[in-house]
Write a structure and sequence with these properties.
Blueprint lengths: L1 E7 L2 H15 L7 E5 L6 E9 L2 H12 L6 E11 L12 E8 L1 H16 L12 E9 L5 H14 L4 E7 L1 E8 L6 E9 L3
Antiparallel strand pairs: 1-3, 1-8, 2-6, 4-5, 4-7, 5-6, 8-9
Length: 198
């Protein structure tokens, strides 16, 4: 069972994400670049990706998550950025466009570290790095020739949205999710929900 642990985003934030995505859809860049957008109705902050977990081990993961001791906390999403990170003048390639987190980064990191600690005790490897951001879309180069202009248009839009306010929400639960890959994109199903502070 392909699984991961995540914080789902509020409907208000998902609506704003959809509005931001539409601004990128309107750019005339589709000849040399392809943008693969995350379904805004499924937008989330990944806490830990587990990969394929045998069904008999899923119960172990649930029990570990049930022991999480973190309390609810607020987050605020703000600004649009990209990977690999570079100044706009030096950027030659864009692979991922994301929304950053302005508030709640420390609390989210503490939650992620506790999840790591409890799952590492079950034999799951530690993450090399953790990023507090939400993916808007992935960028694929279709052609090297002439892609500089398209990258320039993407960068201009990213800079316009550098300070965009996306929204605030209370994080009061984390979810173990099952991901099924389909030709139309992944389908997520909640396997277990841990209410924070309970």
């Amino acid at each position: 069972m392909r699984t991961f642990i995540a914080v789902d985003l509020s409907e208000e934030i998902r609506t704003k994400i959809n509005e931001i995505q539409k601004q990128f859809m309107d750019l005339e860049i589709h000849e040399k670049l392809k943008l693969k957008f995350v379904n805004p109705r499924q937008a989330h902050q990944t806490v830990k990706f587990l990969g394929d977990v045998p069904k008999d081990r899923v119960e172990e993961v649930k029990r570990a998550l049930a022991e999480i001791s973190q309390n609810p906390f607020d987050i605020a999403l703000r600004c649009v950025g990209f990977f690999p990170e570079a100044s706009p003048e030096k950027a030659r390639n864009i692979r991922v466009i994301w929304i950053g987190m302005e508030k709640g980064v420390g609390e989210l990191k503490a939650l992620q570290e506790e999840v790591e600690f409890r799952l590492n005790a079950l034999g799951f490897p530690l993450e090399k790095r953790f990023g507090s951001h939400v993916t808007l879309c992935r960028v694929k180069m279709l052609s090297r020739a002439g892609s500089k202009d398209e990258i320039g248009r993407l960068l201009k839009k990213i800079m316009e949205l550098r300070e965009v306010e996306v929204g605030e929400m209370l994080v009061n639960e984390i979810k173990l999710k099952h991901s099924t890959l389909t030709p139309k994109g992944p389908v997520y199903e909640d396997v277990y929900v841990k209410r924070l502070g309970e």
